[in-house]
């Protein structure tokens, strides 16, 4: 499988409360609403958006990725309001190894409602069923217990902590690593039927 097969035209994915779709310039205000919150950006490598132009610049960056048919995020649209409330994506995809790494961010007003578990769960399903993946992994800084909880709810297995593996905002950080294998995911799905 080639990256262009999926990212040549990013598919729209619809689930119970959410639509996962391409990000457009119409999402700039919604993105700024969550990306300008220091609590939301606390555990991610990007800086808090200080002006709407920061959000517009990021959307331009994402749209270039869509044009280039390379790995890019889905916007998370909350059906109830029609607003984009975060993003979810495979931040790394290695088709030759059939492995991808999941990444996500969600507006603070939507924390604790199972929304990210729903969005990321759909990407896990999509990765195994449409992208020929055998392993999906995810990592978070050790202090980000909310993200660890999402990974555990997705049925991922904790694999260990890498010490000072990234530098976020001038500080070296430890990352907790999780993964789920295709056969584990299929067992989970069978158990839910």
Structural description of this entry:
- The chain is of the alpha+beta class and 193 residues long.
- The protein has a single domain, classed as 3-Layer(aba) Sandwich (Aminopeptidase), CATH 3.40.630.
- The chain has helices spanning 3-7, 28-35, 38-41, 52-68, 115-130, 145-153, 182-192; strands at 13-14, 18-21, 74-78, 83-94, 99-106, 135-141, 157-168, 171-181.
- An eight-stranded mixed beta sheet has the order 1-2-3-4-5-6-8-7, sandwiched between helices.
- Helix 2 (28-35) crosses helix 4 (52-68).
- It is globular and about 45 Å long.
Number of helices: 7
Shape descriptor reads globular
Say what the CATH topology is.
Answer: Aminopeptidase
Q: Structural class, from helix and strand content? A: alpha+beta
Strand content: 25-35%
Question: What is the top-level CATH class?
Answer: Alpha Beta
Give a quick summary of the entry.
The chain has 193 residues and is of the alpha+beta class.
SSE topology sketch:
Layout: H1 3-7, E1 13-14, E2 18-21, H2 28-35, H3 38-41, H4 52-68, E3 74-78, E4 83-94, E5 99-106, H5 115-130, E6 135-141, H6 145-153, E7 157-168, E8 171-181, H7 182-192
Parallel strand pairs: 5-6
Antiparallel strand pairs: 1-2, 2-3, 3-4, 4-5, 6-8, 7-8
Helix pairs in contact: 2-4
């Amino acid at each position: 499988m080639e990256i262009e097969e999926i990212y040549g035209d990013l598919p729209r994915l619809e689930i119970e409360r959410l639509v996962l779709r391409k990000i457009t310039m119409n999402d700039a205000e919604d993105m700024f609403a969550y990306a300008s919150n220091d609590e939301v950006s606390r555990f991610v490598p990007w800086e808090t958006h200080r002006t709407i132009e920061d959000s517009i610049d990021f959307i331009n960056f994402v749209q270039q990725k869509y044009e280039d048919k390379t790995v890019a995020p889905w916007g998370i649209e909350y059906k109830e309001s029609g607003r984009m409330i975060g993003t979810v994506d495979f931040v790394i995809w290695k088709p030759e190894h059939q492995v991808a790494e999941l990444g996500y961010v969600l507006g603070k007003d939507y924390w604790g409602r199972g929304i990210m578990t729903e969005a990321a769960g759909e990407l896990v399903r999509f990765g195994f069923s449409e992208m020929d993946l055998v392993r999906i992994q995810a990592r978070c800084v050790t202090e980000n217990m909310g993200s660890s909880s999402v990974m555990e709810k997705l049925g991922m297995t904790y694999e260990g902590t890498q010490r000072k593996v990234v530098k976020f905002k001038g500080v070296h950080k430890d990352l907790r690593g999780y993964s789920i294998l295709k056969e584990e995911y299929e067992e989970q799905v069978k158990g839910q039927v």
